[in-house]
Structures are given as C-alpha cells and as structure tokens.
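Budget justification note: compute hours in this period were largely spent on complex prediction jobs such as the one shown. Inputs:
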Amino acid sequence: MRISRRKAEQGNVLICVLCTILIVSLIAGNVLFNCITRSNTASSQVRGWKESIYAAEAGGDLAYAEIRKTILDPTHAFSGWTNLGGVYSNSPVTFGRDSLTTSAAVNVFYNDSNGNPWYRIRVKGSAPVLGLKRATMDDRMGVGTRGDSLLRKIDFNYDHFIATYGPKGDNLLKAIVPVSRPQITRRVELVAAPVTPFEAAIKTLNSFAGPGSAGLVDSYNSNNGPYYFCANNPSDPHYGDSHSGGVELDSANFNLGGAIWGNVTTNGGNVKPSSSIHGTIDNNVPFTVLPYVMPTNLPLPLPSPTTIVDNVTLNPPSAGSVTSPNAYLVSSFSGNLTINQVGTAPTYVAIHSTGDITGSIDAKPNVYVKIFFDRNISLKARDIVNESGIAANLQFYGISPSDPTAIQSIDIAPPGNFAATFYAPSADFQLTGNPDVTGAIVCKTFQGNGNTSWHYDRALDTAGDAIDYRIASYVEDMR
Amino acid sequence: MKLKNSHRINGFTLSESLVSLSLSSIVLAAAVASSVSLQKSFNAVDNYFATEMQQVRIIDYLNRDVNRGLSVTTSADLQTVTVTVPNYIIQPGDPEAVADPSLIGTPRAPTVAYTPSGPQVNYGASTSTVVYSISNTSILRTENGAVTTIASSTDQLVPQTTDVELANTEYANASVTFMPILTTAGSPAERTGTSLYATAYLRNKRRS
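Corresponding output:
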C-alpha cells in the first residue's frame, strides 16, 4: 500500500511539470500565432497597396497603347472603347493571379501649334486585400494619429473615394457604393505628349555622307531672328543655339567631310573625335523610326485642283487652322505651285500628292504648308521657295511605301537654297551641289557631300506632326 | 487501526513538506521566469514587426511623393527631404477656389507651357512642397504646412535619403533603419541589420 501511494505522489509531480510545460507552450504558441497573424495582415495590406498601383499603371499602359495607335494604326485606335463626349473609356480589365482590375478614361485636353493633340489619361487600379478584415497592427500611433490606414485607405465595405469625392473625384455624384471584397484602389493621371520628328538636324537610318569639306552642319533659333554663323564665337549672344546641328545615324555607315557643330551618334560606328566634330560622339545609340503612314485626321480634300501642271496659283477659300487646314489631293505635281495667304490671316494648307513631285512650290509668308507625298521628289533647290524663311512653314512628309522593298527617293539638285523640313523615313535623300539649307530631315539614307551648309532650326524641336507619344507627366490622386 | 493509518497517511513529514515546497518554488519560479521572458520576447517581436511596418510605410510615403515629384533635394545630414510636387488638387485660397469655391477639393486640369528646355505640363501656376523630417521619435511629413506623423517609434527610426541627379533623370535613394529594443549593448551592426532600401525615380523631372 505504501508503495502504491508513493507512486501516486510521484505522478502528481510529473503532471504538474507537464501542465507547466503545456501552459508555457500555449503562451509561446499564442505569442507566435498573434505575431504571425498581425504580420500577415499588415503584409497583405502592403501587398494590396503596391499591387493597386501596378494595376493602375497597367491601365495607363493600355490607354497609352491606344494613343500610340492614333499615329501608328489609326483605324484601330480606341477600338472597343466607349466615346462619350470626347472621353474614351474602357470597361474594367481584370488580370493577374490576384485578379487586379483597372480602367481608364482618355481625352484630348490640348492641341498644340502643330495641331497635335495632347492626351490626359485618368486611370484607376484596384487590388484585393486578403486576410483579416481589419486595420493593420500599428494603425494607431498615438491619440488621433493614424498610421497605415491614413496611407493605404483600404475599402473594407464601401468605396471611400466615390462616397467622399464622387466617381471622377470632382465632388459630383457622391454615393455609397459597396465593394465586393476588401480592396485598395489607387488613381493616377498621366499626360501623353506628342513626339515631333525633328529633334536633330539630320537623322538617318542606314547611312550618312556629308557635308563636303567646305560644308557644315550647325544650328540657330529662328525665334531669335535670321541665321548667321556664330558657332565659333562664344561671346555671341546666340552662340548657345549654334551647337545643335546634330547628326543621328542608326547604323555604322558614317562618312564625314566638313564640320558638324553638334553631337554625332551612330549605331556601332567608329566615329572618333576630330577637329570637325564640335560635340559629343557616341557610337552606341540605336534608335527606331517607324514607317510613316498618311494621317487620318485631315479634312476631306477640296474639289480642286486635283493636278498641278503648268502654273497653278492656290487661293484657299479660308485660312483654315492647324487642325483643319485646307486640304488638297493631287495626282500629279509637275507644275509650278504658288500658295497665297488668305487676307492677313495665317493660312494652313495640306497637299497630298499621290504621284512624283517634280515641279516647284512657292509658299508665301504666313502660309503653313504640309506636303504629303506617296512617291518621289526630284527638283532643284531653287524650286523650293519658302518666303518666310522659316523651315517649319514648309514641311514634306514621305508616306512609306506599303512594300518595304520599294525605293523612295528625294533628289535635290543645284542651283539654289531652301528652307524646309523632310520627314521621310523610307526615302533615300540626295543633295547635290553646294546649297544652303535651313531645316531638318529624317530619312533612310543621307547623301550630301557637296559643300552643303545645313542649318538646323532649334524652333523645330516642337514642330511637325506627331510621330509617336511619350508620357510627359505623372500624378497620383492620393485622396 | 484503519483510522490511525489514515491519519498517518494524510499527513506530511517536515522533510516532505520542505522538499515539496522547494520543488514547487522551483517550478513556480521557472514558470514566472518563462512568462516574463516570453512577455519580453512578445514585446520585442511585436515591436520589431511594428517598426518594420513603419519602415515600409516611410518608404512608401516617400516613394509616392518622389515618383510624382518635379524636384527633390536632401539636407546635408540626409535626414530632411524636400520634394516639389504638382499642385494637383485645388485647395482653399487657390485662385480657382476664390473664383469658384465649389472647385475646392477637385483635381486641376493640366496645362502646357513652353520653356527653353521644352514643353512642360503644369497643374496650376504654383507647386506644392512636401518635406520629410525627424522630430524626436517621430517621422513627419509636411505638405504645404500641414504636418502628418507618418511613423513614430521608440526604436529610433532613422531615414536617410540621397538624391542623384543625372543628365536626363533623377532618383532618390532612401534607407530606413531602427535599433531593436532587445539588443546586446546597442551595437551598430544590429541597426545595420534592419536596413530597408528603396530607389524611386522622379517621373516629372524638370530639365534645365
């Protein structure tokens, strides 16, 4: 009996020890569980906050892609989007493992002096908040001081933004809108700005040869008055505008003769510093220039003329505007065209030539002309008369042939000088003689190894039709 | 006999009592010590997690402002950051609000201005300024004079930011560290071990 009683007493001690271990383990487990739960909740909310901006930016990319299509593929731009009062919007798009959603609204808010639209993109992105439906672990940092919830603004039951500011954030149409799941929504606003073609004096894809040993490429700014050479005179007030005569080449085939007062870039070339290049040299700058397609936003062409043969004087019926110029469609252009100003108003003209251009053109002062050509140009420099002297007032656009193997050419022979711009990424450009040219060019090949003097006008920085878009501004609506 | 036996059985000798008391004390002391240690551990772990979340929050605040920033500058001690941001929302006292008070709290429409360095997108004629600074144990965010405490910890949170300006871009490198409360003599390595780094680019950088 005594023996059995002793055994019972020893068992009690063992139970006590086991109970103590159990209690301590429970406390420890609870501590860990509590910490992990709170950490998971907070981590999930941080993840939702970050994913929501990814969703918003993805929505911005979708909208940006549509805007780029207005240049690159106009017939399919904003296909499937709803246009309500000039505002394009898409249905919410769901994507990703966490079912992120995004939607965007796009509208033109500004047309620049070239008639290029600037787009405002308003986009929102939402991400679910997984885990417990509660504010995060350290939301209260003090009396009345919120932590994470002030930043992350989780919608547990209702969309706080619509309730407080309205769906567009303009204090209109406020409503209590339940959310199907806890979520975080972030809103950003982007601005897509047009990219204009003339960012360098000469931009060519396949080869560059020029200028001759007595020629030069330099720059000036027509906003400061007519051109004069000052690139070698640092004390000249316009010296700062004289070193932007840059040449950009997307290949290695670079042959230099005369002076270049600007930067030179090639794609794999072997251009070395020399006394002829007065700028930086970079032989590792590839770029892409997409084929140029005929713009679709021009008005319908006027009934006449439909050909330009012999002497044709154009007196447009109205001054037009940069976004709605007087448009003409001509099948041949072998005559001498003179374009007059309408009264004293700036006059805008757009001509689409489906045949070769072999005639001459005389644009009077205050006349802004864009010539779109499907085929080739072959004329003398003196046949390009731009009476304003401002290169941006006479712009030539070469429509890229649908057959990429087709050859398009621009041949300009002596004598004469001219002021104009050329955007013809599929054309071989050949300039012979010793012309004095004010303007800029984008072409496939450039050959101008006579003693050409080519003066880039810095005012062309923002001139010309949009050839692409870039995101110029980013703002987040933090409310 | 049975009663006597039962009395003897129910009693404890002095030595038995002392032994059991000693054992109980040891077990109790162990339990109390464990509880205290666990409580301290809980507090430390909880505090570590909480401070870590505050690190993340500081970085998230800063990156959001830098991303939409026009310019960013940091003080010599790297602990005060000033970000200039577009004035997106119309505030009381703004010219638009004076003309039409119903516009208060609504977004501005963008405008385009031409400068010698190219076209710029603006929201209103002025900009907003956001300043990040340290005040005792708190990290403050001040936007146009309105102060928000974005983090507060006794763990000595220290954000440091550098802005790097290149020809065509600018970015801010930030790091936030803290000293965990359970440290061994507060060695610098323990602070370094908590470092959280982030880089954010200015998407609206103004070029000169």
